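Case study.
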Amino acid sequence: MKSYHFRILKSKIISVFLTLFAILSTVPFLLVLYFIIKNGISVINWEFLTSLPKPVGEPGGGILNAIVGTTILIIIALILAVPFGIFTGVFLAEKGDSKIAFLSRLVVEILQGVPSIVVGIIVYLWIVKPMGHFSALSGGVALGIMMLPVVIKSTEEILKLIPREIKEASLALGVPYYKTILKVVIPAGFSGILTGILAGTARIAGETAPLLFTAFGNPFLNFNILKPISAMPLLIFNYAVSPYEEWWAKAWGASCILVVFVLTLNIITRLISKR
Amino acid sequence: MTDIVLRTENLTASYDEHIVVKNVNLSIPRNSITAIMGPSGCGKTTLIRCFNRMHELSPKAKVEGKVILIEKNHQIEEIDVYSIDPMLVRRKIGMVFQKPNPFPTMSIYENVIAGYILNGIKLKKSEADEIVEETLKKVSLWDEVKDRLHKKGTFLSGGQQQRLCIARALAMKPDIILLDEPTSALDPVATLKIEELLEQLKDTVTIVIVTHNVGQAGRISDYVAFMYLGELIEYGPTDVVFTRPRHEKTEEFLSGKIG
Amino acid sequence: MLAEKLNKLKEKIVEQGNLVESMIEKSIRGLLTRDKALLIDVLQVDEPRANEMEIEIDEMCVNLIARFHPEAKDLRTIIMILKMNNDLERIGDMAVNISESALFLIERPQVKPLIDLPKMAEETIQMLKDSIDSFIKGDSNLAKNVCERDDIVDAYRDQILRELITYMISDPTTIERAIHIERISRNLERIADLATNIGEDVVYIVEGKVIKHGRYKETEQGGV
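After joint prediction, the assembly is written out as follows.
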């Protein structure tokens, strides 16, 4: 009987430990969130969101250039990654046994593991060098490449979950294959694909490294995708490494906005995929 | 001479060199229920999937021999199923699957006319309404769903979903509908309802049903085919096959010794 | 599905019942009115028809059992119809026997005025009618009542036999004719027996109880 009670005690101790570690692992995140909000929230106001940076020493000024820049970069990345990603995902889900699928899956996995700064360098060689200057386009391409594996993987996985019967039902009604994919299979996996896209967006929103030699940054408002453009992470990076205290405050503010944005995307993703 | 709607000539089907249907010659009478029974893996599902050319969708699938569809409009017309567009074949020969599979993104209403929507066949609102009502009445689902036509089909019970799937096939006004073990995922009450329904439907459409359930074949079919190891062992009126089968294998299957 | 087909089967067996009933009725009427055509009709038209129906009903029963695996009351009904079918066909054969003897008798002078035989025939036909009615209505009381009336017909047969023996003893030339009359009464008596069987079958269908062979009184559920 002694050993019985000992066993119960042992299992209780272990379960307490596990719970403790689970709680502990959230501590770094909570700390990050705490500091960012504590330091950032005071900086954020309407002017901060809607005006351009002012030279050091002048009071006020904001990060509009970075917000617009990040938005444009994300849009370019989406335009590139979503169609490519979905079609590749459909291909992998449909023709998963073929040799091409095997290769392409391998490539996607490798791509996922490529360090983001390497992606930046590659895009620099592909686009920035031939063009002769930095541009929003090159930044968007770099982010698009980062996003691609996420969209491909999530599309493939979700489409594999769609029962084969649904597709067969459509084919059995005399619906051609391509229409079946476009009108039945993709809509059926829509929420899953959307989740993948949001998760991909969340992933690239905070990327700094690939933008260093592509989008480069720009203190002015820019809508031309062939010109350098600012982005939230770039701005945070530049401000944080500067010697000016007021820029540090602005970096905190920008960080706060970025974190809230990514957090919101993640929460939405969770909500959609739960349904 | 009975009125034949579909005839196979030396039909052989294989997956990846592995022959699953061997040299089948079968004639299906119009406006009747033909049951195809046999132990699992005997090729009965593959056989009917050859009728509407669904078999060839599987990788490495091959079909030899002929499937002839005989249409009777103003005159009798024999169509070699394998010489025309498979999409056209599948609109003439509908199919209902083992698991109820209404389109999850579509409402009940849209599911019924899914064949038109997905094929891009434009219907006037009044035409669509008429087809939906008429077809749902045929599968005795109208009264149960008429107040929630625009809700998703996936909210219905399994039996209702399966009747919706039958409606979806019927809406295309096919010559034949093929049912691949349509009640194997349903409870006994829902099964009975579908069986009764098929009995009523045979006036408007020819029904071919695959079943591994001897009882079901006995209850609903007019003709019954017994398949074993890919071969058509015996085929004839259900009354005859069930009481005095000619072949020993059929006898064994009916008495539960094989399968 | 089964219900529908079972109804068709019931209609068929009732049709068969009506047919053989009319055969008895025609053969007796043919005898009494000396109507040769009526008797020939029984032999040449009704009898083949009854045989055909018997086979048809047999097949229907076997098909229903093979295809629907009926249970409980449905099963009892089909099995009993199978037995009734057999009995009814036998009744048809007896009506043929009666017609044959009648054909012999109507060509010859009467042994004696037929008084008891028509009464006996009437009672027998009524028994058969009632047994079929009890089947149609599922009325087990009427069916039991049929079984009880078997004694009346038996009494008629004994009475007729006694009477015929006196005729035969007094005038040996009547023996051949008397034997034919006796044959008719014996067949009527057998028909009444078969009507009783049908009554017993109906009780089994309706109540699930066996009342044959003296189990009559044990009306409680026959446990072991």
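Observations recorded in class. Chains A and C do not touch (no CB pair under 8 Å). Chain A has a mean pLDDT of 90. We will return to this complex in the next lecture.
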